[in-house]
Amino acid sequence: MKLSPGKLAGMKAVSNARGVIAAAAMDQRGSLQKALAKEKGGEVTDAMMDEFKTVVSEVLTPHASAILLDPEWGLNASRRRSRSSGLLLAYEKSGYDNARPGRIPDLLNEWSARRLKEAGADCVKVLIYYSPLDKKAVNDEKHAFVERIGDECRANDIPYFLEFVGYDAEGGDEKGVEFARKKPEIVTGSMAEFTKDRYGIDVMKVEVPITMRFVEGAKAFGGTAAYTRDEAMRLFNEAASVATRPFIYLSAGVSNAEFTESLELAADSGVRFAGVLCGRATWKDGIPVYAKQGAAAFRTWLESEGVKNIQNVNDRLKKATPWFATYGVTAAEALA
Question: For the chain, how big is the Rg over CA atoms in Å?
């Protein structure tokens, strides 16, 4: 596999000096609005969403190789990021179609890969909810959706990051132990599907294939076991073994301690992951600070706790593998 000049340039822009992706995520929209409104006890305005994202971008991007933002409330934040930090822009609408079964995704009406690139994006990111265990008709529609975006990104010569988040197609509790037992099959099956050439994906943004609070003996262990530590390490490797594209881990809303422990276990398993795109594990605990005390207090919190959180994640990337090894790009080409 060879990367085109535009895709190579985009990948370099979002990577650190080692060729590892150490990116911050701040593209949350609906979930962020709800969380802020709950803490504030009132309406969350567009100006507040813009301000929250801008403060995160200003404080955290000096410690990140890139930041993921949305074009709805994140464009001002994108202009306030560190010069050393690349930019990914989200292309999908927040959430999914509630009127239809299968969590069907959709794209932002007034945006395209071309327009995201013109707005300064080094890479395009799309999130879908996906389970290989769902109905064939549901997944066929999602496969075509992902293919179309792949063709669009190829035409505009910009890297394509696909984020797929698993769910229980039977409607079970996705925070419970039964789903934790299904999760490795869902993550591995999703990686096996979207690593195929037909989709044109350059980097897969994937979930950790296990849930740390169900790993026996883990610091995050909650008392109910779905897997032993050895089983968890085997499941990390089974998921990684199907990938023919670089993949990075997402934090999926867990705490900083739980996410960093997951990265430690991935490294101990010998998994060749190319980095992270980490959002809520760095800034989530600052939501009440912003909602109740305002932007200045939130900035102070980020400068202390937020920076500490992102540095905790970065410290766990020492064993990450440069993305360019997968593409046959030399270190000299990738880091020049």
Answer: 19
